UniProtKB/TrEMBL annotation:
Compartments where located: Cytoplasm; Nucleus, Nucleolus
GO molecular function ontology, one term from the record: RNA binding
GO cellular component, one term: cytoplasmic exosome (RNase complex)
Exoribonuclease phosphorolytic domain mapped to chain residues: 1-98, 102-166
Subunit composition and interactions: Homodimer. Component of the RNA exosome core complex (Exo-9), composed of EXOSC1, EXOSC2, EXOSC3, EXOSC4, EXOSC5, EXOSC6, EXOSC7, EXOSC8 and EXOSC9; within the complex interacts with EXOSC3, EXOSC8, and EXOSC9. The catalytically inactive RNA exosome core complex (Exo-9) associates with the catalytic subunit EXOSC10/RRP6. Exo-9 may associate with DIS3 to form the nucleolar exosome complex, or DIS3L to form the cytoplasmic exosome complex.
CDD domains: RNase_PH_RRP46
UniProt protein name: Exosome complex component RRP46
GO biological process: nuclear mRNA surveillance; poly(A)-dependent snoRNA 3'-end processing; rRNA catabolic process; rRNA processing; U4 snRNA 3'-end processing
Major location (coarse): cytoplasm
Keywords: Cytoplasm, DNA-binding, Exosome, Nucleus, Phosphoprotein, rRNA processing
Keyword Plastid attached: no
Family, per entry: Belongs to the RNase PH family.
Length: 185
């Protein structure tokens, strides 16, 4: 939709001080809002993004280093977290970091009557009974991260997950097309 996020990746570089990990790279995710300073919402999203990225980055190949992923929100018209996840994955891929698999973010909005809307706008999110965001890996289509806002039944969550896993195929095809376009020049 009209939501866009710019991703910048820095590293692996030598880590300073107490953040050093002898087992692997230290990953830091910074989410910058369109205007103003980051707040509680951005910090919460940063944690979700960092955990998702850590699940796929093969950090053991870069011990005692730091990797910083900066995500700048350019416009937010809904489905911001899934857009951030997709930008993060494309940033990691473009930087050439070793990954166990790719991942994508899919947001579902659950209407009052149980209807499922994929990639909802900000207005659809406000009117929804529940908004669910999933991070799905490319190899087994398993869930790397899930977050919900609002309430839904277990069955509805499973229906949303199934819809998100089907939608993930389209996103992974977009990744393939983007990489093919970039490297076929």
């Amino acid at each position: 939709g009209d939501t866009s996020v710019l991703a910048g990746l820095y590293g692996p570089v030598e880590v300073k001080g107490s953040k050093e990990s002898p087992d692997g790279a230290t990953l830091e995710v910074l989410l910058r809002p369109k205007v103003g300073l980051p707040g509680v919402g951005e910090r919460s999203r940063e944690q979700l993004l960092r955990r998702t990225c850590e699940a796929v980055v093969l950090g053991a190949l870069h011990p005692r280093t730091a990797i910083t992923l900066v995500l700048q929100v350019l416009s937010d018209a809904g489905s911001l977290l899934s857009c951030c996840l997709n930008a993060a994955c494309m940033g990691l891929l473009d930087a050439g970091l070793p990954l166990s698999s790719l991942f994508c973010g899919v947001t579902c909005a659950l209407g009052a009557q149980g209807s499922i809307v994929l990639d909802p706008t900000a207005r659809q999110e406000q009117e929804a009974r529940a908004v669910l965001t999933f991070a799905i890996d490319s190899t087994e289509r398993k869930v790397l991260m899930a977050t919900t806002k609002g309430s839904c039944s277990v069955e509805e969550m499973q229906q949303c997950l199934a819809a998100a896993q089907r939608a993930a195929d389209t996103i992974f095809q977009f990744y393939r097309d983007s990489v093919r376009r970039k490297y076929s020049k």
